Amino acid sequence: MRYCLLIAATCFLIVFETNPVSAQLKKVRFAVATIAISEVPFKVAQLKGFYREEGLDVETILIRGAVGVQALIGGSVDYSSSSGAVIAAGVRGLGLKLVLIVSSKPAFDLVSRPNIRSIDQLKGKIVGISSRGGAVDLLTQLILRQNGLTPDKDVTSLVVGSAEELMIALRAGLISAALLSPPRQFLLYREGFNQLAYSGDYLPTYPTGGIGATENKIKKEPEEVLAFVKGSLKGMNYYRQNRSESIDILAKFLGIKDPALAAQVYDLHASRLAKNGSADESWMRGAIEFTKRSLGVSKEIPPGQAFDFSFVQKAAR
């Protein structure tokens, strides 16, 4: 019996002594809506060990936009990258705030099937979205409205799923158009699909990617939030400053086998990264006003209800 206990104790020591750093890391769960260009800087931070430097073991979990935000509110995950859905929840007063943004403009193109060459031709057609209330849904509604079409009246919105599923539905003719981010729209353009609109031309004050957290997390675990923001900013800076290596990481992460396409996607995305992961008050108010219109909210919403860039500022100092 003593011999068995000695063996068990020895194994226990071996396991923990061979991984002293892992034993000290704090596990956090990060929900991402899809495998997209906006997630690449976070992947860089993970691969380069920037989160470990901040004492974190980050587990990335794939959960669609609005569902991921529900998981965040419920405490099933610690953070969410679904920036649009986080802002919407903040505007609704659900206690969520965006603490970092990857890009200050949306990255999506409205892509249509080859037989549709203008937005007005979408009348009576079906447009695909990833989830109700997410960034793709809200931006699609905005583009349709600004072109004289009423969502869910002139055009039917159909929840299809991930970006890959939207591509499949477009190719199969199940939907007529959808908002897609790099590299997906570039792949479809090569196949004869059309660009109907760039979302950034319709809304210059809206993020693509970011970090959302609950007010409870911000209040009770500010050191963890700061560590996650710092690690992510390191990843963004490395991604921006190391083009060749970042293109390789991007290509593997997004499954791009064409080096020229990977470089095209990187150059476009790198040019749109938010400076220092934050934005000014005017930008925040613009993002809130868009969200209010989309949600039918009329009351005044202060920027502090949906954003908290104090951690980015602390990280910069």
- Order of helical and strand elements: HHEHHEHEHEEEHEHEHEHEHHHHHH
Strand proportion: 15-25%
CATH class of the largest domain: Alpha Beta
> What is the subunit organization of this protein?
single chain
The rounded distance between the terminal residues' Cα atoms is 57 Å
Q: Give the C-alpha Rg.
A: 21 Å
Overall CATH architecture of the largest domain: 3-Layer(aba) Sandwich
3D architecture notes:
- With 317 residues, the protein is an alpha/beta fold.
- It contains 16 helices and 10 strands.
- The protein has 2 domains: 2-105 and 206-316, Periplasmic binding protein-like II (D-Maltodextrin-Binding Protein, domain 2, 3-Layer(aba) Sandwich), CATH 3.40.190.10; 109-202, Periplasmic binding protein-like II (D-Maltodextrin-Binding Protein, domain 2, 3-Layer(aba) Sandwich).
- Helices cover 50% and strands 16% of the residues.
- Helix 6 (83-91) packs across helix 15 (281-295), helix 12 (222-241) crosses helix 16 and helix 13 (243-254) crosses helix 14.
- The radius of gyration is 21 Å and the shape is globular.
Write a compact overview of the structure shown:
This protein is an alpha/beta fold and 317 residues long. It is 50% helix and 16% strand. It folds into two domains: 2-105 and 206-316, Periplasmic binding protein-like II (D-Maltodextrin-Binding Protein, domain 2), CATH 3.40.190.10; 109-202, D-Maltodextrin-Binding Protein, domain 2.
